[in-house]
């Protein structure tokens, strides 16, 4: 019997994805569940729903609430938080690099560092220099990694992963999948792990 | 020092409101928190956001997910559930009657019975006969209550309560308020009660 697996679909610009990226590893480890990191882009998923911006920008009351909710949750999880001066930030390069990180085994720590930059340090993760900085701090060769991230095959892989998100019925991030079972939102992280434990072993 | 209070804003057609209506009383009691029942209509609130239907109907992937999520949550809370054959059902009469129930002290049990009819028995709560049936089963004089519910002053009171929801920044249901602190969704019921305990005593 193999270890149960949860697919973790997240977007670097997404505020609630930030919470799950920071939290998932120790929780999954404690639950004995393996995490498959699935960075993708919410933009095309939202466009398919008719939104050309974050719903938190399109619907101001939802946005106001979200930032306050985030502040409360950050306090609960003891995560440093500074509201980003730009939202949502461009996450294209970060997502492409993360896909390389999936291949090479450093996606988790890279993803946490990008989220920390976006939601605790108010740095623009859309800038190449910020991503390069993060990669260097991880002990990686930033130029070489970014070159691999920008290769056609990797760009295509991210596009495919994003299309797959829509095909799977995802409509927001973070989302978690265990087999065909979908869980949406940081609020469902624990439920997804519990489901993987009880239903997900192959 | 008075007892802490949570305002409970809910809509009879709303699936997640169903869960909170069924759950809130024992949880609030255990927390030592008083519940102010605030029935309102989501329709006008949604219209102000540009939606002329439930977002679960406008955005099919959200709707598919919601019904599955609801099924899982109903199992967790051990609530009988049958997917309503119409969604969202007209909740105008039920909300008007509930306002009378707030005045007369029977809003909690009436609200649970309406939710049970809508989400466990697939009865059309938009029909006067169904509401009358529920009132009678509560030992109330159905015709007299419905007449009070349909009086101009009560109709106006519901309209005002719904306008107030928009003014307060509500954008969905259930919502909970403790002072100026807003919590959205059945997922935040426990947080709202905990907040009321620690911040809400007058």
UniProtKB/TrEMBL annotation, chains A, B:
GO terms for biological process: glutathione metabolic process; naphthalene catabolic process. It catalyses: 2-hydroxychromene-2-carboxylate = (3E)-4-(2-hydroxyphenyl)-2-oxobut-3-enoate. GO terms for molecular function: 2-hydroxychromene-2-carboxylate isomerase activity; glutathione peroxidase activity; glutathione transferase activity. The keyword Isomerase applies. Keywords: Isomerase. Its EC number is 5.99.1.4. InterPro entries: DSBA-like_thioredoxin_dom (IPR001853), GST_Kappa/NadH (IPR051924), HCCAis_GSTk (IPR014440), NahD-like (IPR044087), Thioredoxin-like_sf (IPR036249). The active site is at residue 14. Residues 5-191 form the DSBA-like thioredoxin domain. Belongs to the GST superfamily. NadH family. This is 2-hydroxychromene-2-carboxylate isomerase.
């Amino acid at each position: 019997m193999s270890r149960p697996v949860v697919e973790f679909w997240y977007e670097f610009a997404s505020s609630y994805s930030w919470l799950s990226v920071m939290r998932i590893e120790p929780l999954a480890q404690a639950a004995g569940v393996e995490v498959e990191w699935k960075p993708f882009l919410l933009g095309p998923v939202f466009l398919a729903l008719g939104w050309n911006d974050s719903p938190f920008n399109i619907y101001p009351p939802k946005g106001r609430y979200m930032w306050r909710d985030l502040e409360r949750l950050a306090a609960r999880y003891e995560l440093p938080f500074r509201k980003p001066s730009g939202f949502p930030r461009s996450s294209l390069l970060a997502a492409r690099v993360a896909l390389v990180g999936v291949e090479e085994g450093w996606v988790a720590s890279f993803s946490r560092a990008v989220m920390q930059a976006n939601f605790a340090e108010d740095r623009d993760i859309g800038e190449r220099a910020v991503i390069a900085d993060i990669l260097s701090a991880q002990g990686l060769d930033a130029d070489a990694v970014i070159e691999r991230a920008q290769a056609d095959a990797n760009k295509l892989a991210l596009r495919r992963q994003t299309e797959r998100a829509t095909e799977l019925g995802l409509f927001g991030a973070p989302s978690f999948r265990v087999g065909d079972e979908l869980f949406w939102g940081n609020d469902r992280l624990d439920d997804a792990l519990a489901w993987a434990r009880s239903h997900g072993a192959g």
